Protein backbone atom coordinates (compact mmCIF):
# COMPACT_ATOMS: atom_id res chain seq x y z
CA UNK A 1 0.00 0.00 0.00
CA UNK A 2 1.23 3.49 -0.86
CA UNK A 3 1.60 5.93 1.99
CA UNK A 4 -0.68 8.91 1.15
CA UNK A 5 1.77 11.27 2.86
CA UNK A 6 4.36 10.52 0.17
CA UNK A 7 1.92 11.06 -2.70
CA UNK A 8 2.60 13.98 -5.09
CA UNK A 9 -1.15 14.66 -4.98
CA UNK A 10 -2.29 16.95 -2.17
CA UNK A 11 -4.69 15.69 0.46
CA UNK A 12 -7.21 18.39 -0.49
CA UNK A 13 -7.14 17.35 -4.15
CA UNK A 14 -7.59 13.67 -3.24
CA UNK A 15 -10.43 14.54 -0.86
CA UNK A 16 -12.26 16.62 -3.49
CA UNK A 17 -12.13 13.80 -6.04
CA UNK A 18 -13.14 11.10 -3.56
CA UNK A 19 -15.99 13.15 -2.10
CA UNK A 20 -17.48 13.65 -5.57
CA UNK A 21 -17.20 9.94 -6.29
CA UNK A 22 -18.93 9.13 -3.00
CA UNK A 23 -21.85 11.31 -4.11
CA UNK A 24 -21.98 9.43 -7.41
CA UNK A 25 -20.86 12.50 -9.34
CA UNK A 26 -18.00 13.26 -11.68
CA UNK A 27 -15.43 15.44 -9.88
CA UNK A 28 -15.12 19.03 -11.10
CA UNK A 29 -11.32 18.74 -11.06
CA UNK A 30 -8.57 16.21 -10.49
CA UNK A 31 -9.77 14.00 -13.32
CA UNK A 32 -6.22 13.23 -14.38
CA UNK A 33 -6.00 11.20 -11.15
CA UNK A 34 -8.79 8.91 -12.36
CA UNK A 35 -8.49 8.95 -16.16
CA UNK A 36 -7.72 5.61 -17.75
CA UNK A 37 -8.00 4.73 -21.41
CA UNK A 38 -8.05 8.35 -22.54
CA UNK A 39 -4.38 8.47 -23.55
CA UNK A 40 -5.36 7.39 -27.07
CA UNK A 41 -7.23 10.70 -27.44
CA UNK A 42 -4.55 12.96 -25.94
CA UNK A 43 -2.52 13.58 -29.10
CA UNK A 44 -5.54 14.47 -31.25
CA UNK A 45 -7.16 16.62 -28.56
CA UNK A 46 -3.93 18.43 -27.73
CA UNK A 47 -3.51 19.16 -31.47
CA UNK A 48 -7.02 20.62 -31.53
CA UNK A 49 -6.30 22.74 -28.45
CA UNK A 50 -3.17 23.97 -30.23
CA UNK A 51 -5.27 24.80 -33.31
CA UNK A 52 -7.50 27.00 -31.16
CA UNK A 53 -4.49 28.56 -29.41
CA UNK A 54 -3.19 29.64 -32.82
CA UNK A 55 -6.44 31.31 -33.81
CA UNK A 56 -8.35 28.41 -35.37
CA UNK A 57 -11.56 26.89 -34.15
CA UNK A 58 -12.79 23.44 -33.17
CA UNK A 59 -16.21 22.21 -32.10
CA UNK A 60 -16.78 19.05 -30.07
CA UNK A 61 -20.10 17.46 -29.23
CA UNK A 62 -20.04 14.35 -27.08
CA UNK A 63 -22.89 11.90 -27.40
CA UNK A 64 -23.46 8.56 -25.72
CA UNK A 65 -25.62 6.41 -23.51
CA UNK A 66 -26.25 7.20 -19.85
CA UNK A 67 -23.20 6.25 -17.78
CA UNK A 68 -20.85 5.92 -20.73
CA UNK A 69 -18.46 8.62 -19.47
CA UNK A 70 -19.54 11.71 -21.42
CA UNK A 71 -19.37 14.06 -18.44
CA UNK A 72 -16.05 12.61 -17.30
CA UNK A 73 -14.57 12.98 -20.79
CA UNK A 74 -15.75 16.57 -21.27
CA UNK A 75 -14.53 17.64 -17.83
CA UNK A 76 -11.19 15.94 -18.44
CA UNK A 77 -10.86 17.77 -21.76
CA UNK A 78 -11.92 21.05 -20.13
CA UNK A 79 -9.30 20.56 -17.42
CA UNK A 80 -6.62 20.08 -20.10
CA UNK A 81 -7.76 23.25 -21.87
CA UNK A 82 -7.79 25.28 -18.62
CA UNK A 83 -4.22 24.13 -17.97
CA UNK A 84 -3.36 25.90 -21.24
CA UNK A 85 -5.08 29.11 -19.99
CA UNK A 86 -8.32 28.68 -21.90
CA UNK A 87 -11.73 29.67 -20.63
CA UNK A 88 -14.03 26.63 -20.66
CA UNK A 89 -17.79 26.12 -20.49
CA UNK A 90 -19.62 22.83 -20.09
CA UNK A 91 -23.36 22.60 -20.58
CA UNK A 92 -25.81 19.72 -20.78
CA UNK A 93 -28.24 19.94 -23.69
CA UNK A 94 -31.71 18.85 -22.57
CA UNK A 95 -35.21 19.28 -23.90
CA UNK A 96 -36.39 21.08 -20.76
CA UNK A 97 -33.49 23.16 -19.42
CA UNK A 98 -31.20 23.82 -22.40
CA UNK A 99 -32.90 22.88 -25.67
CA UNK A 100 -30.52 23.04 -28.61
CA UNK A 101 -33.03 24.86 -30.82
CA UNK A 102 -33.21 27.79 -28.34
CA UNK A 103 -29.86 29.39 -29.05
CA UNK A 104 -30.43 32.28 -26.63
CA UNK A 105 -30.79 29.74 -23.81
CA UNK A 106 -27.73 27.79 -24.97
CA UNK A 107 -25.68 31.01 -25.12
CA UNK A 108 -26.89 32.12 -21.68
CA UNK A 109 -25.96 28.73 -20.18
CA UNK A 110 -22.52 28.90 -21.81
CA UNK A 111 -21.84 32.33 -20.32
CA UNK A 112 -23.16 31.19 -16.92
CA UNK A 113 -20.85 28.16 -16.93
CA UNK A 114 -17.71 29.84 -18.31
CA UNK A 115 -14.71 29.19 -16.06
CA UNK A 116 -10.94 29.62 -16.01
CA UNK A 117 -8.23 28.39 -13.68
CA UNK A 118 -8.59 31.66 -11.75
CA UNK A 119 -12.36 32.17 -11.86
CA UNK A 120 -15.17 29.70 -11.24
CA UNK A 121 -18.44 29.99 -13.16
CA UNK A 122 -19.52 32.53 -14.24
CA UNK A 123 -16.17 33.90 -15.36
CA UNK A 124 -17.43 36.02 -18.26
CA UNK A 125 -17.19 39.34 -16.42
CA UNK A 126 -13.69 38.72 -15.01
CA UNK A 127 -12.49 37.53 -18.45
CA UNK A 128 -13.85 40.66 -20.16
CA UNK A 129 -12.53 42.91 -17.37
CA UNK A 130 -9.09 41.29 -17.71
CA UNK A 131 -9.18 41.91 -21.46
CA UNK A 132 -9.98 45.60 -20.91
CA UNK A 133 -7.21 45.79 -18.29
CA UNK A 134 -4.84 44.30 -20.90
CA UNK A 135 -5.84 47.06 -23.32
CA UNK A 136 -4.97 49.68 -20.69
CA UNK A 137 -1.64 48.00 -19.97
CA UNK A 138 -0.83 47.88 -23.70
CA UNK A 139 -1.76 51.55 -24.13
CA UNK A 140 0.50 52.52 -21.21
CA UNK A 141 3.32 50.34 -22.60
CA UNK A 142 3.00 52.20 -25.91
CA UNK A 143 3.63 55.48 -24.08
CA UNK A 144 0.15 56.83 -23.32
CA UNK A 145 -0.01 59.00 -20.21
CA UNK A 146 -2.99 59.27 -17.86
CA UNK A 147 -4.62 62.03 -19.94
CA UNK A 148 -4.28 60.09 -23.21
CA UNK A 149 -5.19 56.72 -21.74
CA UNK A 150 -8.90 56.82 -22.59
CA UNK A 151 -8.38 57.66 -26.25
CA UNK A 152 -5.42 55.27 -26.57
CA UNK A 153 -7.51 52.43 -25.15
CA UNK A 154 -10.36 53.35 -27.50
CA UNK A 155 -7.98 53.14 -30.49
CA UNK A 156 -6.69 49.75 -29.37
CA UNK A 157 -10.26 48.58 -28.73
CA UNK A 158 -11.33 49.60 -32.23
CA UNK A 159 -8.30 47.94 -33.83
CA UNK A 160 -8.69 44.67 -31.93
CA UNK A 161 -12.44 44.48 -32.42
CA UNK A 162 -12.27 45.17 -36.17
CA UNK A 163 -12.12 41.46 -37.04
CA UNK A 164 -14.80 40.61 -34.48
CA UNK A 165 -17.02 43.35 -35.89
CA UNK A 166 -16.99 41.72 -39.31
CA UNK A 167 -18.21 38.36 -37.99
CA UNK A 168 -20.12 39.24 -34.80
CA UNK A 169 -20.96 42.95 -34.81
CA UNK A 170 -23.39 42.65 -31.91
CA UNK A 171 -20.68 41.15 -29.68
CA UNK A 172 -18.30 44.01 -30.49
CA UNK A 173 -21.12 46.47 -29.79
CA UNK A 174 -21.84 44.76 -26.47
CA UNK A 175 -18.18 45.03 -25.43
CA UNK A 176 -18.13 48.72 -26.31
CA UNK A 177 -21.38 49.25 -24.39
CA UNK A 178 -20.02 47.40 -21.37
CA UNK A 179 -16.87 49.55 -21.41
CA UNK A 180 -18.96 52.72 -21.67
CA UNK A 181 -21.12 51.59 -18.74
CA UNK A 182 -18.01 50.90 -16.65
CA UNK A 183 -16.58 54.31 -17.49
CA UNK A 184 -19.90 55.99 -16.69
CA UNK A 185 -20.07 54.34 -13.31
Structure report:
- It is a single chain.
- With 185 residues, the chain is an all-alpha fold.
- Helix content is 57%, strand content 0%.
- The chain has 7 helices and no strands.
- Helix 5 (124-141) crosses helix 6 (149-167).
- It is globular and about 55 Å long.
- 7% of the residues are buried.
SS elements, strand count: 0
Oligomerization state? single chain
Coarse shape = globular
Total tally of structural domains: 2
Mean pLDDT: 89
Number of helices: 7
Write down the Rg: 20 Å
Strand content: under 5%
SSE order in H/E notation? HHHHHHH
Q: Regions with pLDDT < 50 over 5+ consecutive residues?
A: none
- Distance between the terminal alpha carbons, to the nearest Å? 59 Å
Q: Strand count, sense and closure of the main sheet?
A: none
Structural class: mainly alpha
Helix content: 55-70%
How is this structure best summarized?
The protein is mostly helical. The protein has helices at 11-22, 39-53, 70-83, 103-113, 124-141, 149-167, 169-184. Helix 6 (149-167) packs antiparallel against helix 7.
Q: What is the topology?
A:
Elements: H1 11-22, H2 39-53, H3 70-83, H4 103-113, H5 124-141, H6 149-167, H7 169-184
Keywords, separated by commas or semicolons:
185 residues; mainly alpha; 2 domains; 7 helices; globular
Amino acid sequence: MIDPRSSPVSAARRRTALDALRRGAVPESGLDLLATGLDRFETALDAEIETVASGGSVFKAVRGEYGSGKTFFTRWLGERARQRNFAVAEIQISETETPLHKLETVYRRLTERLSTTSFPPSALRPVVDAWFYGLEEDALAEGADEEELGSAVEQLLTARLSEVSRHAPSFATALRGYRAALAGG
